[in-house]
From TrEMBL:
<protein>
    <recommendedName>
        <fullName>Purine nucleoside phosphorylase DeoD-type</fullName>
        <ecNumber>2.4.2.1</ecNumber>
    </recommendedName>
</protein>
<feature type="binding site" description="in other chain">
    <location>
        <position position="21"/>
    </location>
    <ligand>
        <name>phosphate</name>
    </ligand>
</feature>
<dbReference type="GO" id="GO:0006152">
    <property type="term" value="P:purine nucleoside catabolic process"/>
</dbReference>
<feature type="binding site" description="in other chain">
    <location>
        <begin position="88"/>
        <end position="91"/>
    </location>
    <ligand>
        <name>phosphate</name>
    </ligand>
</feature>
<dbReference type="InterPro" id="IPR004402">
    <property type="entry name" value="DeoD-type"/>
</dbReference>
<feature type="binding site" description="in other chain">
    <location>
        <position position="25"/>
    </location>
    <ligand>
        <name>phosphate</name>
    </ligand>
</feature>
<dbReference type="GO" id="GO:0005829">
    <property type="term" value="C:cytosol"/>
</dbReference>
<feature type="active site" description="Proton donor">
    <location>
        <position position="205"/>
    </location>
</feature>
<feature type="domain" description="Nucleoside phosphorylase">
    <location>
        <begin position="17"/>
        <end position="210"/>
    </location>
</feature>
<keyword id="KW-0328">Glycosyltransferase</keyword>
<dbReference type="InterPro" id="IPR018016">
    <property type="entry name" value="Nucleoside_phosphorylase_CS"/>
</dbReference>
<feature type="site" description="Important for catalytic activity">
    <location>
        <position position="218"/>
    </location>
</feature>
<dbReference type="GO" id="GO:0004731">
    <property type="term" value="F:purine-nucleoside phosphorylase activity"/>
</dbReference>
<feature type="binding site">
    <location>
        <position position="5"/>
    </location>
    <ligand>
        <name>a purine D-ribonucleoside</name>
    </ligand>
</feature>
<comment type="similarity">
    <text>Belongs to the PNP/UDP phosphorylase family.</text>
</comment>
<dbReference type="InterPro" id="IPR000845">
    <property type="entry name" value="Nucleoside_phosphorylase_d"/>
</dbReference>
<dbReference type="Pfam" id="PF01048">
    <property type="entry name" value="PNP_UDP_1"/>
</dbReference>
Amino acid sequence: MSTPHINANTDDFSDTVVMPGDPLRAKYISEHYLTRAKLVTNVRNMLGYTGLYKGKKISVMSSGMGIPSCSIYATELIKFYGVKKIVRVGSCGAVSDKIKVRDLILAHSVSTDSKVNEIRLNGYQFSLSSDFELMNKLFIQAKNHKLDLKVGNVFTTDSFYSLDNDLINLLRKYNFLAVEMETAGLLGIAQEYDIQAAAIYTVSDHIISNEAMSSDERERSFDEMIRLTLDALI
Ligand code: HPA
């Protein structure tokens, strides 16, 4: 079987998926953390892999950038491949003074400038939060790994280059931690199909101070996030 965007066989995916935005991150995770990993889909180079992590079958599927791309892959994984748990492992830009580049953030809840969930709910505000059980497991693993995981509200935006200064100031006023571009899509879909989803990020840049990570730092903090996520999922 294949779907419009995934050319895997029916049983190729685990019910548990780790979802980075970047296809090369999916490749990296499969090569560095999974055993007996195989590439299961490569349509448009949106790579997906399945292998074993400490003996448990886990898949890694890239989402691409933005709500529409992420939503396509999440929906097809759930509807056609029986996926029940998705953890987005992404990057984000900090807006809060309490957050530094390299910090790890768990999205407790997300707000968004996208209309996608309001449309779902006939114009009413849709409250989006990570799945409680997944959040709990991620939080416990962060403690086990001695990592200071910050938990809070994150803003999903449709706009990378034209984010309005007034909006950034509002996000700061209301103590949002960071902005990113996919989670409101993923959590709306999880709610629609009654599956578990959560999102965790490394802070790649700070929107106020303009600080950004070196490529070395990117790799190190990405590894910390992946290890804790995989340990939370087994
Ligand atoms: N804006 C939106 N998404 C992001 C950013 C940003 O600054 N950094 C990482 N993901």
